[in-house]
Write a structure and sequence with these properties.
Length: 231
């Protein structure tokens, strides 16, 4: 085996019971990816008030370290100001099939004020263990519901049709132009509005994609504080 196979290998169960494998060669996180770009600009202004630097262009696309693509039930963090983001992930598996699954982009909100690209590299992108063929749901993304919840009580914090975000087809064109529409690519969608009345700094996060025909894909993980550093 060549040396680059230290890259993470993810496996997904498809609706027919078969298993898809992807060796992650490149992981891309979209940002500010709402379909209504006027709303996106309003969101950027809100973030600016919290000290998050505004991007030069929207939507954005941040390449992040492939090892951050993980299927895990626990995420270790350095402090109490980190939280997830409900997203979908477009995965091109080792056979070149384009899959859709649920993902949660765990983000360091403290680091985010210094630079979004940094914060994207500080915590994993957690992916679900099941996936659909994108072609099976491509024509009904407005009926696929993306949702996020927090805590043991599963308090809802995010929910919207997947079509509130730029669609996978938009990003497939971008990947095509970049020469990255090929096996080993994982692209995460950017997120939907968060309910500000719910505490996002929770010790558990979950995300689901729900389709009227194919059912539900979900993931959930504990957020675990590490010991304080010795310094």
């Amino acid at each position: 085996m060549s040396h680059h196979h230290s890259n993470p290998t993810l496996t997904f169960e498809l609706p027919d019971g078969s298993v898809s494998t992807v060796t992650v060669e490149r992981l891309l996180n979209a940002g500010y990816a709402g379909k209504n770009q006027e709303e996106v600009r309003a969101h950027i202004d809100e973030l600016a008030e919290l000290g998050v630097p505004a991007p030069a262009t929207t939507p954005t696309l941040y390449p992040v370290s492939p090892y951050l693509a993980q299927q895990t039930d626990r995420v270790s963090v350095q402090h109490g100001r980190t939280s997830g983001e409900a997203e979908w992930a477009l995965v091109i598996d080792d056979e070149g099939r384009e899959l859709l699954t649920a993902a949660c982009d765990h983000t360091d909100r403290q680091l985010e004020t210094h630079g979004v690209a940094w914060s994207k590299n500080a915590s994993p992108d957690v992916l679900a263990r099941k996936a659909w063929l994108y072609s099976d749901v491509a024509d009904r993304m407005d009926r696929v519901i993306l949702s996020g919840w927090v805590g043991a009580e599963r308090t809802p914090i995010q929910s919207a049709p997947a079509a509130a975000l730029l669609e996978p087809s938009y990003w497939l064109d971008v990947l095509e132009q970049r020469g990255e529409r090929r096996p080993g690519t994982v692209l995460i969608s950017g997120t939907i509005t968060m309910d500000g009345s719910v505490d996002q700094f929770a010790d558990r996060w979950g995300v689901a994609l729900e389709d009227p025909e194919l059912g539900r894909i979900e993931l959930e993980y504990d957020v675990v504080r590490m010991a304080d550093p010795i310094h």
